[in-house]
Amino acid sequence: MEVFQSLADGFAVAFTLQNLGLALIGCFLGTIIGALPGLGPSNGVAILIPLAFTLGLGPTPAMILLTSVYYGAMYGGRISSILLNIPGDEPALMTTLDGYPMAKNGRAGEALTLSGIASFVGAFFATWGLVFLAPLLVKVALLFGPAEYFALFTLAFATLGGIASRNQAKAVFAAALGLGIAMIGVDGQTGVPRFTFGEVHLYDGIDFLVAIVGLFALSEVFVFLEQAATRNRGEKHQDNHPKIGRILPEWSVILSCTPSMLRSTVLGFLAGVLPGAGASLGSFISYSVEKRLVDKEGTFGTGDPRGVAAPEAGNNAAAGGALVPMLALGVPGSGTTAVLLAVLLSLNITPGPLLFQNNPDVVWGLIAALFIANFVLLALNIPMVGMFVRILMVPTRFLMPVVAMVSFVGIYGISGSSFDLLVMVVFGVLGWVLRKFDVPLVPIILGILLGAAMEKNLRRAITISNGDWTTLVHSGLSITLWAIAIIGFVLPILVGPALRRRMSVRRSEEDVTFD
Question: Structural domain tally of the chain?
Fold first, then answer.
């Protein structure tokens, strides 16, 4: 009953004109961002962070706006997957396998509507999972001491690459780079400047919001400029969209897909809760399990509606599941939740066990807003499908200047420092270079976010034990966390290549079918 009372209080917070308006705007912008190939939820949230701070939003309204963008981008990723056979983001890759064939068969409207319904089912029930599971995790987290928190942070770094990671060594390099950047500034314990090179502006360290906007948003602009210089002018391929056709599928089709949606919701939510697994694994597992269970006639990959519903329910459920460890433990479950974690920290709110006690209005208002956002997205994504399709036709050369403008104006509005603008440009160039070498950016952000807390807990644990390093593996809880961290780091090395081969085989089979 206490959970339901807290949720009712959250709806009282969310049901204000400002918060409802922000949820609507966030859902709309998120859907557009998700539909544009290559941007994805992480970049979308990073681009809009400066806007949230420039508007002077408080913690609850800012998080409602950005989480609505997050959910909206997860919804929107399916649009370009179905119409163009180009995933809006990585989790939407599996949707192309049956979504694009449906579009080629003249059923694009049905595929878009069905995927929207599946996204709603996955996200809606995942939000209920967040309501019940997060408070339970909080009770466990209250048992954590400094040694356990250090092990937990290590687990976050070890598993962030995920099972689908292409190269664990690059993920380790990125995490180490992020931890190194976190060391810049004055040491809080000794007062000694570290890695400042005499620059007074670096005494306070690197602002993680500046790093995030540079690494994600500005690097996207640099990538576009590089591509624009090497490709032929124009984007004529976008004029060949399949016809939308009928919007609403028959009820028999929706009912036949319902079991697939429900099973995929459970699988996706579990994948989202696991740090590092994320929506990509959720959508892949959901599609694979459904193919094994129900594809008796070999129709998956040829335009089977269940092949659209399963991965969409799975990846949206994983998006909700990833919020569980972020809110309850302060450890992000995905790249986008790492960005949201940075926003909370910048608002002087520390995610973790005490968040539910110290800031119940923020956490329960946020959860209530997620329920509202789901219904808003369902209402937007069915009748307004045609409008989102036309937005896909807007050339990228018109969108990227807006991204650059929002980044510069937003960061300057937050700090009022021209030095921060230079730092943002440096991170933008760094992000562009790292993306060329296929080095993941999220571990860098996680290192910058958690580096100081990780160092503080390590020092505290060693101080309490009078310099005894075995205190890090003294309790059963810390040993369990270390074991999970080791398994989470080794498993992608052993299983990852086979998993990626299966994903590429599925995609190539689909391509052969329609060539």
Answer: 1
